[in-house]
Amino acid sequence: MSDPRLVEPDRGPAPGQPGPYDPLRLCIFATVALLGWVLGPLALTFFAVLGVTGYLKARRAGLLRSKCLLGDTRNVLAYLGLLALLGLAGVVWAVTSGSYWFAW
Amino acid sequence: MSGMPLRGDRIHRYVNAFCPVCHEERPDRPLEEVQRLSGWLVERDDRIWLERGCATHGLVRTLYDESPEILRYLEQWTAPTKRHEPDVRGNFKPVPAAYADGLPEMQTQHTCILLEDLLDHCNLKCPTCFAESSPARASVAPLEEVLASVDTRLSRENARIDVLMLSGGEPTLYPYLAELLDAVAERPIVRVLVNTNGLRIAQDDDLLDLLTRHRERVEVYLQYDGESAGASAYHRGADIRRFKDRAIERLSASGIFTTLTMTAALGVNDDEIGHVVKRALTTPYVGGVTIQPVFGSGRTGAIDPLDRLTHTGVLARLEQQTSGQVTWEDLTALPCSHPHCCSVGYLLRDDSGTWQSLTTLIGHDRLKQWLDLEPDLLANRIADDVIPSAMKDVVKQSLLDLLSEQSSLSHPSMASIWRDICTSCDIGIGTLTALATGSLPGQRKKLRAMLGERVLRVTVKPFMDMNTMIEERLTQCCVHVATVNGETGDHQCAPFCAVQAWRPLGDSRISTATGLPLVETSA
Ligand code: SF4
Ligand code: SF4
Ligand SMILES: [Zn+2]
Ligand SMILES: [Zn+2]
Question: At which of B397, B418, B453 does a domain end?
Answer without folding.
Answer: B453
